[in-house]
Structures are given as C-alpha cells and as structure tokens.
Amino acid sequence: MSAASTPSLWRGAGRLIGKRIGLALVTLLLVSAVIFTISGLLPGDAAQEVLGQGATPEQVAALRHEMGLDRPAPVRYAEWLGSIVAGDPGQSLVANKPVADIISERLPNTLTLAALAALVSVPFAFLIGIASAVSRGRKLDRGINVLTLSMVALPEFLVATIAVLIFAVELLWLPSITIVPKDPTFAQFARAYAMPVMVLAVGVVAQLGRMIRAAIIAELDRPYVEMARLKGVGPQRLVFRHVLPNAIGPIVNAMALSLSNLFGGAIIVETIFNYPGLASLMVNAVTSRDMPLLQACAMIFCATYLLLVLIADTVAILANPRLRQV
Amino acid sequence: MSLSPHVEVRNLAVTVRGPDGQPLRIIDDVSFDVARGEVLALIGESGSGKTTIALSLMGYGRGGAAISGLIRVGDATLDGAGGASLAAQRGRRITYVAQSAAAAFNPSRRVIDQVIEPALIHRTESAQAARARAIDLFRALGLPGPETIGSRYPHELSGGQLQRLMAAMALITQPDLVIFDEPTTALDVTTQVGVLQAFRRVVRQQGATGVYVSHDLAVVAQMADQILVLNRGRVREQNRVAALLEAPADDYTQLLIAAAHPVVKAQPIPAKPEPLLEIAGISAGYGPIDRAGRPAYPVLSDVSLTIGRGAAVGVIGESGSGKSTVARVVAGLLAPVAGTISLAGETLAPTVSGRTREQLRRVQIVFQNADVALNPAHSVGDILGRVLRFYHDMHGADAQRRVAELLDLIRLPATVAERRCDELSGGQKQRVNLARALAADPDIILCDEVTSALDTVVRGAILDLLADLRRDLGVAYLFISHDIATVKALCDEIVVLYKGTRVESGRRDGYDTPPFHPYTDLLIGSVPELRPGWLADESVQAAAPLAHLAESPDLCRFLPRCPVAMAGRCDVAPPPLREMSAGNMVLCHRTEAELVG
C-alpha cells in the first residue's frame, strides 16, 4: 500500500501470472489425455487404413503388433506424452515420415497466413469498434452494426466463393488458388495472399470489432468518463487515455479468441484456396487414421490457444493496477 | 463587471426524451443569480433537478438533454454569444466535484495524473508547475503525505481522501466557479466534518464562487450564503441561509426543514420483553481462516446482543464497523468463526443451508438498495407471490388476496401488483422491498441501511411505516444505520460498533445526554446541526494523544483516534465494560465521571 510500491507491484503481478502459467500447463496436460482418448475412439486404426478393405484380420493384427498399437492405452499414452515433451511427436503411420518433418513443412504456412490476417484485421477491428462505440446510437454506429452483423452471419465458404467469383473469375485480378513461389517478390506474395487473408479477416474484423465496441461502451457509461468530459477532456484523449486502459482486459481476451480461430479454424479457407496449412493437414490425418499426426496437430492448436489466452491474461493483469498490486 | 452577478441564469429549461419518446421538460423556468465569491446551495429531493441545473452551468446535459434559456458565468454563455462558451470553460474556469469520488476517478490511472490533467488540457501551466500546485492543494486540504499521495491509485485511498483529491482536481486551474455535487453524501459523518472544513477553507482562499448541490439542509447551512429550494424542476424559494431556515416562506421548504430531524416515533420501551433473537460472542470475518481460527480479514470480534420479541435494536457505526456483517451473520449468509445465534431458544445453524425453512421464514433481511435487491424483470405481484409460495404454499386467488393485503400494509394501492419494479419511485421500491420481507410473516426483520439511500422526506415516511408495522404486527427489528438520528427515531436500544467491537450499548434515552463512549461522542458530535455557524473553521475535535500507536486487537480499538486516551492505561490493557448510571454499558478505561467532563 505504500507509495513506493514498485517492487511489490511486480511481485504481485509475477505471482498472478505464475499461477496462470501453472494453470495453463495443467490444462494442456488434461487436454493431451482427452486428445489421446478421443483419437483412440475413432473407428478403425492406421493398420486397417494402410492395409485397406481386403486385408485379413490376421494381417491387420500383425501390422498392429508391428506398429505397437496392441499395447495397453496408458502405456502408449505415457510413451507418447514423453516423446511430445521431448519434442518428437513420433512417426507418421501413413506417410512413413517423422511427424515433426510434416508439421515443420506446414506450420510456417499457417503462421504466415494467421499473422497476415491478424495484422490486417486487428487495426480494422479497433477502428470500427471505437468509431461505433463513440457514435453509439447514431447513424454511423447503426450502419456499422448492420455491416458487422452481416459479416458475422455470412459463412466463410460463401465469402470465399464470392471472392473467387469476383476477383479470380470475373475480374481476373487474383489467382483462385494460393501458390507462393520460392523467394517471391512482394507483388507475388501480396497477390497470392490477398484473397485468403481477406476472407479470414472478414469474420475476425466483424467479431472483434463488435467485442471492442461492447467493451468500450461498458466503460463509457461509468462515472469517471462523465468526470473526464467535465474536466474538458476531448473525445480522442477520452478514448485513448481514459477508456482504453480500462477496456483493455476484455479486448485482449476477445483478441485471443479471434486469433486462435485464425490459427486452427482456417480449414475452409485452406481447402478452397488449396493452401497447405495445418488445419487441412489435421483433417487429412483424421481421414487416414494417422493418429500421431492427428494428436500432434491437436496439441499444437491447444497449446497455441492456451498461449494466446495466457498472453491476454498477462496483458489484462498488467493493465489493471488493482490486480498487479495484489 | 463587479456589480453584475458572477452567475446569471434566466428562464432555464432542460428537456430530455421521456420514456414514451416524447420530449419531457425536467427543468422549467429556473432563474437565479450568484454574486462573485458567494456560495449558492441548490437543495431538493432526488428528481428535483438540482444536479441537472448544476451541470447546465457547464453547458452539459446528461444523456443528450437539451438546455435552453440564458446562462452566463463571467463572460461565458451557453451558446458562446459573449465570446466564450460554457462548454469550453469545463475544467478551466468552471469545475466540478462529483458525488462519488471513488467512482469518478479513473481506476487505472495514478491520482496525480488525473488531478493535474485539467491544467495540461487547458495549458494553464506546465506539468511540473501543476504538480507543485497540486501538492500545495493536497497540503491545504489536509491530506496525509501530500508529496507522495498522488502517486497512488484510486483503490488505495479512502473515500474521504478521494473526495479531497477531487477538490484539488477542481481547484488546480484556479477556477472562478466550483460546482460541488453532493460531495459528502457518500461519506461517514465523522469524515464529512473534516472534508467540509477543508472545502470551505480552500474555496475561500481562492475566492471562487460556489454552487453546492445537496439534499442535506444542515450541511448546506454550513457551506452556503444563499439557498435555492427546488422541487420537480421548479424553484420554490430562494433566500439567505439564516433567513430561509428561520422563516421558510414556502410550504415545501417547511416540509424539508421538518424532515431534516426525524421525530422520535418509537413506542415506549417495553419493560422486559421475552428474548427472541440472542447473539452471543459472535466473531466473523472474510478470507481464509488460519490455524488459530481467525479469518484473514476479521470484521466482528465477540459481539453479543439480545433482541426481545417485538423490540427494535439499532446498530450504528461508520463504514467498516462491521454493522452489515452482523446482519449477514444473523441471516446465515456468512458463517461466524465463533459464537452462537439462537432464535426463541433454538440455536440456528451457522449458514442458510443448515436452517429449516421455518427458521428462514422467521428471520428476514431487507437490503439497503431496493434497485439491486428486487428483480427488475418481475412484477411486484410476482416478487411477493414467490415468497408466499415458498414459505406458505399459497397459490392463486389466496396469494392474490394476500398480495393486496401486503400492499395495503405498506400503503401502496393494490394496482401496484401489476407494475414492474423499475416503474416505481425510490420510496415505493423500498416499500415493496419491505413487503417482500413481510410476506414471509417473520418474527424479526434485519434492516440493513434501509433508509440511507432515500431523501429526507421519503425517509421520514418509511420510518413512520416501520414504526406502525412494529406496533400492528409485533415484528422485531435489527435496524442497521450509520445515522444516529434515524436509529433514535425507531429503536428502543442502540448498540454502537467500532471496528467490529461493541463499544457502547444501552437504551435509546441513554444517548440523549453524556456520558458516552468517546466514539459515540464523536458520532453524535459530527452530525451537522440545522443552524449556520455550527461547523467551526478548524477542527473542534481535540487531537488524539496516542495517535502514533497502531490499532491492536488486544487494546481498545479506538485508541489511535481517541481524544481522551491515557498513556499507561489505554495502551497496556484491554478496556473494561462499565455501567453508566443511565444504564448504558461503555467499553472504556475512563470512569463515568471522567467521561462526563
């Protein structure tokens, strides 16, 4: 409580954040068990898939034994978890390559797409969220509301298809599938990514923009905002100095949710634009019963999600003097 | 310039969009002047438009309210015709002190940054100079540690400190006009005195004109030169303070003055009623409980009291005294760590989940804020009907009849049953809140600050109602309040709590004349009286001789604030419980003779 409370300030925040990290690790462990169990419940297994419909039960059993699939589940779980922690998610049962290699081919693609989509959508979301909140109830706000609601309601495949029809089929501006050449020029890069990024951004901008609007409006009704106005604080300073620091907690949490969607939920965009990302890899792993690959993908998505939420929590804790001084 | 009044308001009207979408005029034809350096008080009940008028002096209409008429402050006018507009003067030459400083400070910014912000926005001086001025103001306002207090965040400061800091924020640009909007309403009486003194001293030093919004005539009598009485957006009377208090011309003013002092309506104290609720040695608190059985944040320590059948016992104390915790423990919302509660001889389980429905029915609680306690989506009939179903298994026509009876008891028309709570006025809601408790047909009602959020006139009516219900139904009350006048108007016995300890208890009439516990003395002496000049310029409260000592659970809790504390006695042993000749029990080292002196 003392005025010179800087050291205790960071100790309080450190303790809270440490707690969050611990919780995230526990969650990840539970998730790993769930992923392992659920992937075991899928009908058929990799041995069946490799040998095809014509295989005799004896052949399948022999291959299962060879692949180690006939050992008890807890043993396989422990072994799998150990190797995941060690950074080796095992051998793909179908492609006969290390899972790590397959993923390391795809992960940069997914990261690039997600990062570009985030880079485009976050500033737009802030722009329309703030504009909409400060003009609450007026024409601009109502216009933005109609727009964002329809953007949220439009399914991604429809947006993607319409975009392809307009920009690739009619106007011939952009390629309908995303092929990034090796060492692309900026123009090639931009042309390749324009459409998938745009399609992903539509949903994120709308959703995040609405959440930012709601978070700001909740703050605008608080007495300190009226007090600031009565001090002569102008609209810009009001939003950036007074309101946003208090609204940042809910906003970063909404951002974490939206961004984790960009990461793992890009399956439709990846499929339509034939983009080699992680989401389509995971779907392929499900159809081919390639459990090690499927489990590794699922773990990556969960870990990313937890990491984003953890970052959001940390920002929220640091932005709130009450929490960081506990 | 010096001859014309500083503030001139002519035919002010404020219009908002009403609930039906039609324009609704909430202020109509208000005109007044304030001379330079004087303080005008705007007084009236909630809904009288006093805050709306005060805000219109800054050209500000809440929720887009439309302001019309002529307002001039210095050379600034509403529409800016004289060169400057009122809106441009906000925070510069016209400043504002809000009712709840705790809510009006931005929780995520350091206080000093907020205090000097007006000076930076309006570029009256550099940040460094503004900071130095702020520290001078902190010192003048009597804030502890003026050099460092600004580096704290609002949640680290008390309500009284925040209210002073907000005054510093209002004075940082050396304004001509300061608007105080109920600046001490949210404070304890003991804190209010010091804050009022500091405000008055600093405003006088700066030579600023003041507009003081309040519902409390006694406070206004200390702060203002002129009083403007408002009712439903219209002026009822304007006069100098002394003249208005001595000879109120308007009948509404007379009503306000009468309501400022609740008349003792309490029945004669019954001789020795059969005990109904007995609280014995209760200790309680919040947070995890350590090995010694003490909670991390102890609130109550060893509190005992007995309420007889049909009796009314008042509990008073400042915020943080634990008075609401007493009600929460009795109601079973918080389990005590020690002590027992018994109802008519039956020991009650520590929490609601262990009590029978019959026991729950007999003890009902009514909360301070009816807005929060009543579900706004339900009609009054639903709210009361649910209680009847739960406790009495009453349905259909029977329940409807009983709802009508209950509404009659609380003096509301039976048609109110159809209305939703948010369509009712504050006083009506509090009546429904009370009816909800009465629907259970309880033996005792725990009233937690039930009149604190109400205006004086409405408060008087609710106190009358409570007294009548007690007489007619024989219900007992545990009546919790921070206001000793309210408690004396209703209760037979009064318990004074300080930091969770019972420092004094006794019959109502024992609180009419000294000796009192020094804390009771402070409470009684802090209630402003309805006469100008009651508030001294400097603190009349003698300094506490042992103020340097930290508070200890093993000694008298009041020691660091006690003006009559004795070194060598008060700081070595816990105080004994003494019986005064008037029958009051006082927890103090001082003898009766010493306390009288």
UniProtKB/TrEMBL annotation, chain A:
CDD domains: TM_PBP2 (cd06261)
Location relative to the cell: Cell membrane
Membrane topology: Multi-pass membrane protein
Coiled-coil segments: none
Cited InterPro entries: BPD_transp_1_N (IPR045621), MetI-like (IPR000515), MetI-like_sf (IPR035906)
GO CC terms in record: plasma membrane
Residue ranges annotated for the ABC transmembrane type-1 domain, each copy included: 107-312
Assigned keywords, A-Z: Cell membrane, Membrane, Transmembrane, Transmembrane helix, Transport
Lineage top rank: taxon: Bacteria
Gene3D superfamilies for this protein: MetI-like
Pfam families tied to this protein: BPD_transp_1 (PF00528), BPD_transp_1_N (PF19300)
Predominant place of localization: membrane
Transmembrane segments: 21-42, 113-134, 146-173, 193-212, 251-273, 293-319
Alphabetical GO biological process terms: transmembrane transport
Family designation: Belongs to the binding-protein-dependent transport system permease family.
Protein name in the entry: ABC transporter permease
Automatic annotation (TrEMBL), chain B:
Keyword entries, A-Z: ATP-binding, Nucleotide-binding, Transport
Domain ABC transporter: 7-257, 277-524
Family stated for the protein in its record: Belongs to the ABC transporter superfamily.
Pfam family, one: oligo_HPY
Protein name per UniProt: ABC transporter ATP-binding protein
Domain of life: Bacteria
GO molecular function, one term: ATP binding
Membrane topology label: Peripheral membrane protein
Localization of this protein: Cell inner membrane
Cellular-component GO terms for this entry: plasma membrane
SMART domains: AAA
One of the GO BP terms on file: peptide transport
